[in-house]
């Protein structure tokens, strides 16, 4: 059970698939990039206009949206990282939990006590 792999994220409000994200692990640290945008009418040359850091102006496809998550000791949970919402430019504290034998991934982004959870589906 690991978040490493390719996932399809689904908008928790509309239920529509938004993107495919590839999560990789290097030296115990997990990061993730947008591989393909699935939103209807998505422009192939779109860039992150709302980003406030080194990602500003970078292409949406290939954009790193997950940074620095690590496995919690003794649990199948990855945390202490950040996740970027490229539409708003906001970064959230990240917690990822593989569920259903690794077929789905609960991705929680939060600022303080406020947050929301999306369930991503593994791409085979």
Automatic annotation (TrEMBL):
DUF2147 domain sequence ranges: 5-122
InterPro entries, sorted: DUF2147
Organism, as annotated: Ramlibacter humi
Lineage top rank: taxon: Bacteria
Protein name: DUF2147 domain-containing protein
Coiled coil, from the record: none
